[in-house]
């Protein structure tokens, strides 16, 4: 089983390849859209590269839960509602959502 | 060799325009997978006899699963896909009022769904390659309409819109998406219509002749090659002037 450093290193290569950014831009705290300029197609590109690099399958909604972000019950005026944020935390327990 | 080291998939590759495209691509160095509902053995035989590399795949473009299986077969054999030509298409000409739901459905499913299915299967591999050219066969009637071809024209108009939309989605990944809109081309599919028009064809087309499959193949080659690397989201008409023929 790979350690965290090995996993990060592989993910870093995937992000560099998918987004055309420099290696030193891909830090553990970097955000895909905000810091690295990712757009919709990039998320799919990243998923495909990570699946190939690790030999796994990733559910598309795990990376980008479109059913939450496109639901007016969970997003209002461009921001997550309390219900939306709660559901997102449940769906993505690994994500740091403190900024939301 | 304008397509050296490239791998191309051509649907509807058994005959007509699809065969001409497959042969032209192979002559320019591409490995070509010809896909059709009837095994495209003649196309593959012609390519290999000329020293090229090709494979024949049987697939119904209406099936998303079959499209993925065909693309997977190409990846397994040759490791990459650089060019996709969505050429598979049929006609079921009738005035709309006489057109059965089945005649409508068949044309839309093969001509338009087929494009979606093969694009869906191929784009992820082009993302990995950071390059790709998708060329779909539209038609004069997709832009202008044609009496007796509501189904065909709708499918080709749909291809035009899909082409522009997909180009917008994948452009930043160096994947280009374009369509070719031929006018009257000398193939078995247009035989009946050309028969009706007869000698009048020379009056309605400024260049006074129907197009040849090779004319279309030459444009497809340009769009597949690096020479067109800044062209995407376009529907390019190739019709001998049919669409601009105004005679007072």
Commentary on this structure:
By secondary structure, chain A is mainly α. Chain A has two domains: about 5-55, ACP-like (Non-ribosomal Peptide Synthetase Peptidyl Carrier Protein, Chain A, Orthogonal Bundle); about 65-90, no CATH class. Chain A contains five helices and two strands; from the N terminus they run ααααββα. Chain A has a two-stranded antiparallel sheet with strand order 1-2. In chain A, helix 1 (about 5-20) crosses helix 2. The model of chain A has no long low-confidence stretch (mean pLDDT about 85). By secondary structure, chain B is α/β, with parallel strands linked by helices. In chain B, strands 3-2-1-4-5-6-7 form a seven-stranded parallel sheet, sandwiched between helices. Chain B is globular. The relative contact order of chain B is 0.15. The interface between A and B is small, with 11 and 8 residues.
CATH topology description of chain B: Rossmann fold
Structural class of chain A: mainly alpha
Q: Cα-atom Rg of chain B, whole angstroms?
A: 17 Å
CATH level-4 homologous superfamily of chain B = NAD(P)-binding Rossmann-like Domain
Secondary-structure element sequence of chain A? HHHHEEH
Counted by DSSP, the helix tally of chain B is 9
Q: Number of folding domains of chain B?
A: 1
Major protein interface:
A-B, 11 and 8 residues
What is the CATH domain class of chain B? Alpha Beta
């Amino acid at each position: 089983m790979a350690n965290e450093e090995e996993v990060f290193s592989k993910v870093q290569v995937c992000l560099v390849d998918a987004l055309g950014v420099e290696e030193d831009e891909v830090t553990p705290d970097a955000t895909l859209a905000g810091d690295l300029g990712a757009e919709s197609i990039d998320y799919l590109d990243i998923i495909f590269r990570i699946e190939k690099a690790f030999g796994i399958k990733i559910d598309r909604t795990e990376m980008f839960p479109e059913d939450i972000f496109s639901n007016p019950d969970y997003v209002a005026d461009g921001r997550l509602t309390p219900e939306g944020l709660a559901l997102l935390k449940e769906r993505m327990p690994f994500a740091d959502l403190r900024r939301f | 060799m304008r397509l050296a080291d490239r791998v191309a998939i051509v649907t509807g590759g058994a005959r007509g325009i699809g065969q001409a495209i497959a042969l032209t691509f192979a002559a320019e160095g591409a490995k070509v997978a010809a896909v059709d509902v009837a095994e495209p053995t003649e196309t593959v035989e012609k390519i290999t006899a000329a020293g090229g590399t090709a494979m024949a795949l049987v697939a119904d473009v209406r099936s998303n699963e079959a499209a993925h299986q065909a693309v997977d077969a190409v990846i397994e054999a040759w490791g990459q896909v650089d060019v996709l030509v969505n050429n598979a298409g049929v006609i079921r000409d009738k005035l709309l009022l006489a057109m059965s739901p089945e005649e409508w459905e068949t044309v839309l499913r093969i001509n338009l769904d087929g494009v979606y299915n093969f694009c869906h299967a191929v784009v992820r591999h082009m993302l990995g390659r950071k390059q790709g050219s998708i060329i779909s066969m539209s038609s004069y009637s997709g832009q202008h309409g044609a009496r007796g071809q509501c189904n065909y024209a709708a499918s080709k108009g749909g291809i035009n819109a899909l082409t522009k939309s997909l180009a917008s989605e994948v452009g930043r990944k160096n994947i280009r998406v374009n369509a070719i809109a031929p006018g009257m081309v000398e193939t078995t599919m247009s035989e009946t219509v050309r028969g009706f028009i007869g000698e009048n064809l020379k009056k309605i087309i400024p260049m006074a002749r129907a197009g040849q499959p090779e004319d279309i193949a030459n444009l497809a080659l340009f769009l597949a090659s690096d020479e067109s690397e800044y062209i995407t989201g376009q529907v390019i008409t190739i019709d001998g002037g049919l669409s601009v023929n105004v005679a007072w």
